[in-house]
Amino acid sequence: MFVLSEDSQRTQGRDAQSSNIMAGKAVAESVRTTLGPRGMDKMLVGSSGDVVITNDGATILNEMDIEHPAAQMIVEVAESQEDEVGDGTTTASVLAGNLLGEAEDLIEQDVHATTIVEGYHEAARIALEAIDEQVSEVAVDDDILGQVAESSMTGKGTGGLTAAELGETVVETIRHVETDDGVARENVSVHTQVGASSNATELVPGIVIDEEPAHDAMPTDVEDASIALLDVELELQTGEVDAEYAIDSIDQLNAAIDAEEGELDNYADAIVDSGVDVVFTTDGVDDRVAAKLANEGVLVFENIGSSDAKNVASATGVSRVGALEDLEEADFGHAEHVRTESYNDDELAFIEGGSAAESVTVFVRGGTKHVVDELERTIGDALDVVATALESGEVVPGAGATEIAIADKIRSEAAGIEGRKQLAITSFADAVDIVPRTLAANTGQDPIDSLVDLRAAHESDGRAGLITDNEEVTIGDPLEHGVVDPADVKREAIESATEAATMIARIDDVISAE
Question: Among residues 332, 334, 303, which one has the least CA distance to residue 319?
Answer without folding.
Answer: 332
